[in-house]
Specification:
Helix content: over 70%
Structural class: mainly alpha
Number of strands: 0
Strand content: under 5%
Order of helices and strands: HHHHHHHHHHH
Number of helices: 11
Shape: elongated
Distance between the termini: 66 Å
Length: 281
């Protein structure tokens, strides 16, 4: 990256943070506006060296703002900070030009610390409950539906079995999360149970839907596995950004578990059908 690239990133960050802060209040609003002011100051420092004004990228600013509305403040801020972490290495190479870049590096490190400790957002506070609901539903339902597919040989029966299994499991998981939070005095037990249950049920409906819409079992099974893979990738990206982990590693880990369980369950379904002589006309 050259100085103009750094300058462009700083002005984009300033406008993005200011835009996001408009819908916030309290500590979050003050924090984001303070960071925005720092980004503008960084822009002004770099402009003294380039001698040029840079227009902000309105499309990029809108994209980040839209993502903040959909996925939350924490997700977008951490996503932006990821790119700024990479920029820190570039700023270190510029220390030979001016020690003012050392101040920019220090500001970026301070931003990370403040964001980690001060941003308050309910969806992040209960992210553990959502992960519990989603990961358990993906592993259990992909496995169950794969097993049902070969054992039952009927889309409507597979869908019915999947819904019964999924809804019963979601109630069980919600109850477990409620009792866990209540015993550990951690957050709101009811909200934790709600996030776990609603995530689980959403996954159940999404995975069972192909069997309700398609008569061909194997087409529905492939569609279900594709849907599960997309959900795994989507949530892995979200989780990796929030928890500052490797996106690729998180996605591959969760995919291997979900699809591995599905493959094993499919084999068990074949065995069950042969041993028990299942036949549904």
């Amino acid at each position: 990256m050259n100085l103009l690239d750094f300058q462009r990133d700083e002005i984009n960050s300033y406008h993005t943070y200011m835009k996001i802060s408009e819908r916030l209040s309290g500590e979050n609003r003050e924090l984001i506006r303070k960071i925005a002011e720092d980004e503008l100051r960084h822009y002004e420092i770099i402009r003294r060296f380039t001698g040029r004004d840079i227009k902000p990228d309105r499309a990029k600013i809108f994209l980040y703002y839209a993502l903040s509305r959909i996925f939350g403040l924490t997700f977008v801020v951490k996503l932006m900070e990821r790119s700024e972490e990479r920029a820190q290495e570039g700023y270190e190479e510029l220390l030979g030009i001016s020690q003012e870049f050392k101040g920019i590096i220090d500001d970026e490190l301070e931003h990370e610390e403040k964001l980690a400790s001060m941003i308050k957002e309910e969806r992040v506070e209960y992210i553990g409950s959502m992960i519990l609901g989603l990961s358990d539903a993906l592993v259990e339902l992909t496995g169950s539906l794969a097993g049902f597919s070969i054992a039952l040989q009927s889309s409507k029966y597979i869908a019915a079995a999947g819904l019964i299994t999924g809804i019963a499991a979601s109630l069980s998981m919600s109850a477990s999360e409620y009792l866990s939070r209540k015993s550990e005095l951690r957050g709101s037990p009811l909200r934790g149970a709600f996030y776990t249950g609603i995530t689980y049920i959403a996954v159940v409906i999404f995975l069972v839907l192909p069997f309700l819409l398609m008569e061909d079992i194997f087409s529905a099974l492939l569609s279900m596995l594709s849907s599960a893979s997309l959900m795994v990738i989507f949530f892995s990206v979200y989780l990796a950004v929030i928890r500052e982990r490797s996106i690729v590693r998180s996605a591959l880990e969760m995919l291997s578990i979900s699809l591995g369980v599905a493959a094993l369950s499919y084999i068990i379904g074949i065995a069950a059908r042969g041993i028990l002589g299942l036949s549904i006309d």
